[in-house]
Amino acid sequence: MSFNDGDFLEVEYTARNAQDDAVIATTDEKVAKEADIYNKEIKYGPALVVLGANAVVKGLEKELKSMEVGKEKEFTLKPEDAFGNRVEDLVRVMPLSEFRAHNINPAPGMRINIDNVTATVRSVGSGRVVVDANHPDAGKEIKYKVRILRTLQDKKDRIDALCRTYDVKPSKIETHDSNVDIYFDSAVKKDADYFVNKTSMLASLFTYLKELDKIDVHEEYVKERQKADRKEKAEHADTPVDSIA
Prior knowledge:
By secondary structure, the protein is α+β, with helices and mostly antiparallel strands. It folds into 3 domains: about 1-85 and about 140-150, Chitinase A, domain 3, CATH 3.10.50; about 90-130, Thrombin, subunit H; about 155-240, Alpha-Beta Plaits (2-Layer Sandwich), CATH 3.30.70.2210. It is about 25% helix and about 30% strand. The protein is built from 6 helices and 12 strands. The strands form 3 sheets. Strands 1, 2, 3, 4 and 9 form a 5-stranded antiparallel β-sheet that branches. Strand 7 (about 115-125) and strand 8 (about 130) form a beta hairpin. Helix 4 (about 155-165) packs antiparallel against helix 5 (about 190-210).
């Protein structure tokens, strides 16, 4: 079996530094905890990969295209096929005063945004800060263990997977020929992250589902008193009749 650009795959993987076997990324929560890289902000579990979307390094995408569903594969990528070779011109020295002017107290390992480029603070001293815009794993050979769990063919499954990727979980999805209705009921927390993630998710739907011409988003908002009334009615509905005094 082979896969092509535009295919939706659900995969499990663990990536390690080939030199010291240190885990740098994984979809497995247990592996993350054992490697002491667990992050409570990350949702572990199968990851969606849309081939051709440049969402993963090119060497990994190439290997995925030749794999089979259910089969596990291990391979090692050279830096140029992983996170790239290091470019010394991307390392620069900046005055500490420039950070202080923006109320930033730089420290080694801190990730910062400089002119819309993410960089890592390498060192701080003598009024100078060394920042590195190379990817943290640039210049390294990366060892992967990967398994393709399934390929997503159904439109609703693809939409649901993209929603989960952006941490926006609809309460209901209805698909039609060239349009889709996506519902977010009052149980969905509509905070700032929701609105930012929803916007990115909608853009991705149009990008990766070429057949879509229209997306209708339905959002439900309920006053707190009405929420409480609904909860109370639901609790009463679940109460056995013979237990009511």
